[in-house]
Amino acid sequence: MSENIIYCYSGSGHCLNMARSIASRLGDTDIVMMRAFPVKTDATEAKRVGFVFPCYGGGLPGHVEEYIKAIKIAPYAYKFAVEQYAGYIGCGLHKIDEIVGLDYWNTVSNHSTCIWLMPHALTVPPTSKEKAQERIDRKAMEVAAAVKAEKRLDVKPPENAFFARESAFFSKLHPKRAKKLTVSDACIGCGTCARVCPMKNITLENKKPTFGTNCIGCLSCLQFCPKEAINMGRITEKRERFPNPFVKASDLTQGILHID
Ligand SMILES: Cc1cc2nc3c(=O)[nH]c(=O)nc-3n(C[C@H](O)[C@H](O)[C@H](O)COP(=O)(O)O)c2cc1C
User: Fold this and answer.
1) 100 within 8 A of 73, measured Cβ to Cβ
2) CB of 19 sitting under 6 A from ligand 1
3) Are strands 48-54 and 78-85 parallel, antiparallel or unpaired?
4) Residue-range domains of the chain with CATH
5) How remote is the CA of residue 56 from the centroid of ligand 1, in Å?
6) Model pTM greater than 0.85?
7) Top mutation candidate among 56, 107, 166, 241 for ligand 1, by most atoms within 8 Å of CB
8) Contact (Cβ atoms closer than 8 angstroms) between residue 22 and residue 52
9) Each residue of 218-259: pLDDT tens digit?
10) In sequence order, which residues have a C-beta less than 8 Å from that of residue 173 and are 6 or more positions away?
11) Of ligand 1's atoms, which has the minimum distance to the CA of residue 113?
12) Does the beta carbon of 8 sit less than 6 angstroms from any atom of ligand 1?
C-alpha cells in the first residue's frame, strides 16, 4: 500500500501531468484514474488522499462524483484537491468537499481543451502553451509543498448554484454532441481512439471508428488521434489540438500509475 493516493480524471492529459508532478514530489504515490470506475476504491491505508481533476461544464467530469462517493478514506487521512479550469472553477471542488471534507484545495487555469466551444488559446488570462505548462509545474510544486506540510485551509471552496445547474445540464448534452463526432479520410485505423475512450463507446468497423451514444464528452479520442482525423462538427476541423505533450494515450488508459 502506498503512503499517498491521488485520484485523477484527465481527458487530454493535463491533469494527469499535474498529478504525476505532485506525486513525484511526494514520493510513494498511487495515481488512480477516474475516467472509468476506479480500480481501487479502498484508500483506508493511505496517509494522504488527493483529487486532481478538470472543470467540465461548470462541474465534475464524467461520473467522477459517483466514483468519489464509492471511495473509502480513513478518518485521520489528510485530504486535498486541485482543479484545472479554463475560465471559471464552477462547483466541482465544492462537491468534492461535501463528499470527503477537504483539508486543502487549490486551482490553476490552463488552456482550454474544450475544442468544440473555443480555440484553446482563449483562456483567462491569455498565455502561450509553454507558459501554461510552466504555470502548471509551479502550481504542482506549490501544492506538493503544502500537502507535505499538511497545510489546512480555513476557507471552503466556493459553492455556486448557477454552476451546479450548468453541470447538471451539461451532462445531458453528451449524447447529442456524440452524434456530431466524425472521422475523416486521414484515419489510418490505428485504434487509438477506441483504446483511449473511457466509456468503450468507440468500435472499429472495417478499420474505421464508429461512435455510440455513451459519450461523456472527454474528447480524448479527438485530442489523441495521431492523424487529427476525428472532429466534433465542422468547427473543430480548423482548431489546434491540445493534448498534454508529456502524456501518452497509453498513460490515460492505465488503472493505476505508481510513482516512487
Ligand atoms: C468537455 C470540456 C468541458 C470543459 N468545461 C469547462 C468549463 O465549464 N469551465 C472551464 O473553465 N473550463 C472548462 N474546460 C477546460 C478544462 O477544464 C481545462 O482545459 C483542463 O486543463 C483540462 O484538463 P485535462 O487535460 O486533464 O482533461 C472544459 C474542457 C472540456 C474538454
Assistant:
1) yes
2) no
3) parallel
4) 4-163+247-259 (3.40.50.360), 174-236 (3.30.70.20)
5) 5
6) yes
7) 56
8) yes
9) 999 999 999 999 999 999 999 999 999 999 999 999 999 999
10) 57, 217
11) 19
12) no
